[in-house]
Specification:
single chain, 180 residues, alpha+beta, Arc Repressor Mutant, subunit A, ADP-ribosylation fold, 3-stranded antiparallel beta sheet, 6 helices, 11 strands, 32% helix, 21% strand, globular, EC 2.7.1.-, NAD
Length: 180
Amino acid sequence: MNEQHKKKTSKFLSYVLRHHPEIIGLHLDENGWADVDELITKSTNDSQGFTFEELDEIVQTNDKKRFIFNEDKTRIRANQGHSIDINLALIPQQPPEFLYHGTAQRNIESILEKGIEKRNRQHVHLSQDIETATKVGMRHGKPIILTINTEKMFDDGIEFYLSENNVWLTDFVDIKYISQ
């Protein structure tokens, strides 16, 4: 699979599995799982087109580990980032002392006024390291990395979850926990 086709297919999978399964008539269960055969068939009908082998390659090689198969590879879902209402069955966990949030320069004023909101997603995404947060921030313009005092948030009763691909998730980050 060439890199251009892989990237295009990965973006399509993110769109369908995280935001709009209905565009191809795909059914997701309450936990966000889709039947692999149905996904391949309906994607082909939508002229996106990929084989199981290509799908497997995308799941295995995606640098952000956006997707996961069940044990027998008959079902697939996105690890996080959904704008649709699903239950990822995440278990609350204690985060490290600090996590990081990468964003674009143009978002700083709003964040420092309102905090970090999940907006149309189910959670705010936080990174374990500055390098990952920088990559996230670069997708949206000049990156700004914010340090989040997650130990204090946790001590204040705020829940955190760790996704399958090691992205920390929470509902909201108040400005009192943010430093630049």
